[in-house]
Amino acid sequence: MGRRWLGLLVLAPFVLSGCGSDGASTKEAEEAAGKSWLVVANGSATPSAVPSRAAGTPTPFPSGFLPLPTNTPAPKPTGSYSCPPVKSQIINGADASAGDTSGTVTWYDPATADLVEYRITAISQDPRLGEQRDVGWTIVTPGATCGYRTATIVGLDRDTRYVFSVDAVTSRADSDATYAKTVARSRVVKTS
C-alpha cells in the first residue's frame, strides 16, 4: 500500500505536466487563447521628499495613553503581604481527605468583599448504572480575613472515589444578583 502511494507521488508531476510537452506548443496555445490578462511590470520605489513623522503638540501625558479626568478616584491595591490576590478564571487546588462516610476539604479563601458564600459538594467518580446519587451542597460562610477554610461533607457512600468541588458565590457590583463559579477542586480521594 505504501509503495503504491510512493509511485503515485513520483509519477504525478509527469502526468500533470503533460509528459514533456515542448515550448513551441505552449506558445501556440497562448497565442490561440489570446493575450494574457495578467501583466507584470517591474518598477521602483518612489522616494519621499520629507521623512514621515507624527505631527502634534507635546503633552504632559505619556504617548499612547488617554488623560484621566481629574475626579477619577485613585486605584486601590488588592492583596497584601498576608493576603495575596488570587487570580480569577482559574481553578485552584483543594486538599481533601476521606473517612468512612464523610470527607474534609480545605481551600484558600481570599476574603474579598464580594464573596457571599461557598458551596462545597462531592462528586462520585465511580459510575453506576442509572441515575447518580446527589450528595447535595454544604454551605460555608467566608471568613473575615483571608486564609485556608475547611469544611466537612457528610453522607458519602463507603468504598467510593470522590472529587470535592468548591464554588464561590459572589455578588455583582452592577446589580443585586449573585453568580457562582468553581474556584477549587480536589484530587480523587476514596472513602473507606
Characteristic terms for this protein:
about 190 residues; alpha+beta; eight-stranded mixed β-sheet; 2 helices; about 15% helix; elongated
Describe this structure in words.
By secondary structure, this protein is of the alpha+beta class. Helix content is 14%, strand content 30%. Strands 1, 2, 3, 4, 5, 6, 7 and 8 form an eight-stranded mixed sheet that branches. The longest helix is centred in the first third of the chain and has 16 residues, at 2-17.
What is shown here, in short?
The protein is of the alpha+beta class. It has helices spanning 2-17, 23-33, and strands at residues 92-98, 102-109, 115-124, 138-140, 147-154, 161-171, 178-186, 189-190. It is 14% helix and 30% strand.
As a percent range, the share of strand residues is 25-35%
H/E element order? HHEEEEEEEE
Mean model confidence by pLDDT: 78
* Helix/strand structural class: alpha+beta
Shape: elongated
Uncertain regions spanning at least 5 consecutive residues: none
Largest sheet: 8 strands, mixed
Portion of residues in helices? 10-25%
- Rg, Cα atoms, Å: 35 Å
Beta strands, count = 8
Distance between the termini: 55 Å
List the helices and strands and how they pair.
Layout: H1 2-17, H2 23-33, E1 92-98, E2 102-109, E3 115-124, E4 138-140, E5 147-154, E6 161-171, E7 178-186, E8 189-190
Parallel strand pairs: 1-7
Antiparallel strand pairs: 1-2, 2-5, 3-4, 3-6, 6-7, 6-8
